[in-house]
Amino acid sequence: MIPKIIWQTHENKYNDLLPFQKNITNTWKNLNPGWEYRYVDGIERSNQVKEYSEFLHKYYLESDKLHQSDIWRLVAIYNNGGFYADMDSICVETIQDSVNRNYKEEEIVCSPIGFQHSGINSSNFGAVKGSKIIKSIIDSLFLQYKEIKLEEVKNLGFGFPENYTFSEICEENKNLVLFNKEYFSHASEYKTSFNSNVEVVFNKEKVNYQTLCTNMNWPIYYI
To answer: In whole angstroms, what is the distance from residue 18 CA to residue 168 CA?
Structure first.
């Protein structure tokens, strides 16, 4: 069973996030009552990777922020289990309700092949603690990094090798994967703004999120 933990990360401390970013994180908190929400800033993220592996941390430090997040999310989910969500994604349905419709104790839950690119995107996914698939992904990254000079890390392309490896190994083990993208919305507009006037599913009923926040007395932050 995948632990009821939601993971997100950004460079800043949580209290220093912009109002729209806090509103985004609150979709994950509000629509998943009883779940643990863990936000990790840039400093803590680096520490967690270093604690997992000094070798991996060397490549982490030479990577840009996007690659750092790609590396860290694998370590965090492997060590603890739970669901990772990009900061430019919102929750639109209670995870448990969405996943449980078809869940058969699969090791990983992730978006289907072809969602946003030709493979499998690691922008939003969940896994059991100690997932063998996630461990295989990390182990593969170790081997690939050994072939890459540290000074060349900054020149690596978007998503390479972390997301490419995630996609490849998940496809190889798709009998242990539940493909589901119904519980989240991932869009470039969420990098700069969030309009709370969106439809979500809560308690298995469709409802306007802004109305729901008002009825439940959940805060909405404004500039």
So the answer is: 35
CA dihedral 15, 38, 197, 18 (to 10 degrees): 20
Residue 69 near residue 89, CB atoms below 8 Å = no
Residue 223: predicted pLDDT: 60
* Domain membership flag for residue 193: yes
In a domain, 34, yes or no: yes
Whether residue 117 has pLDDT greater than 80 = no
Q: Which two tokens stand for residue 197?
A: 């006037």
Give the DSSP per-residue string, 114-167: TSSSSS---SEEEE-TT-HHHHHHHHHHHHHHTTS-GGGGGGPPTTTTHHHHHH
pTM of this prediction?
Answer: 0.97
Contacting residues for 149 by C-beta, under 8 A, at least 6 apart: none
Residue 186's domain spans which residues? Answer: 5-216
- Reported confidence tier of residue 192, pLDDT bands at 50, 70, 90: very high
**In the chain, % of residues over pLDDT 90:** 94
